[in-house]
Write the structure tokens for this entry.
Amino acid sequence: MSTSFRMPAEWAPHTAVWTAWPHDPEQWLEGLEAPQRALMNMVAAIVDLEHGLPRGERVELLVRHAADEAAARALLGPAAQGVTFHHGPYGDVWLRDTGPIFVTRDGELAAARFRFDGWGGKYVMKGDAEVSARVMAWSGVRGAAFEFVLEGGAVEVDGQGALLTTKQCLLGGARNPGLDQRALEARLQWALGADRVTWLDRGLVNDHTDGHIDTLARFVAPGVVACMEPGPSDPNREALAGIIADLRAAKLEVVTVPSPGAVHDASGMLMPASYMNFYIANTTVVIPTYGVAADDAAVAAIAEMFCGRRAVALDGKTVVVGGGAFHCSTQQQPIA
């Protein structure tokens, strides 16, 4: 694979999207029923039935076995016609991080596969380290394996060579302790076709992923980045204000949506809730909501950024219990 391969922007056309059925009760401490329903609602939104036929992108759904497939089909209803099921072992739903990153070059599609270490060794689940190779085999897409740790949620691109990431995640020491900033930039340029890497500082409080960029800042057009404006009592006020300042210092155009502020789980723990964890499908943008006052304004603002797509707001709180939301659970396969 040469540097002429590049990771396309998420709004570029997709052949399919890869995701999975949530199944591990240890990862879903408030129960499996609510996240299963929320994620199958996401799948149905991506399939996007019109007059009974799928008009969105194909969904490639990982399940462990026939019983999981039957349960997923029951929740999907007619939308199941837009889904291809793949049976095999995997840890849980976080295909953004465990799957490969697809890259393109002049009509060619390839896949970049990275080492996966369970988010710095914190959440090691059986089968996750092999998901990337399995997805490549199922998709029939060949590519290259890179010998450094990288999760897809740690990088965000505009398809024109700009890449965003965070120091907390990639330079924090647990994932690639022998690589400094310069070495990691060279590897990101080689693997994903990045020309310019912008390093933000840190992520949200209690973020399972150590500051993944897809909960903080997202490209919505070449050179244009969406992020969250914190309120006066926001528990992430300092981090979010720093993100806005760093993006502007990097000469990127910044557009903001409100932050959800403090969102707590059933035990009272602060959750890493973010409106930035939306997924941009071919016909739909799926936006997480949290049952808070800022939901409507945030959804409206994101919908305006993607006026050619319908905006579908879905309950993200039940999914964040497991560590992420809709973007974290999806990995797009672009058209070459």
Notes: Residues 228 and 336 are 32 Å apart (CA to CA). The chain has one domain: 14-334. Residues 14-334 form a domain with the L-arginine/glycine Amidinotransferase; Chain A fold (CATH 3.75.10.10).
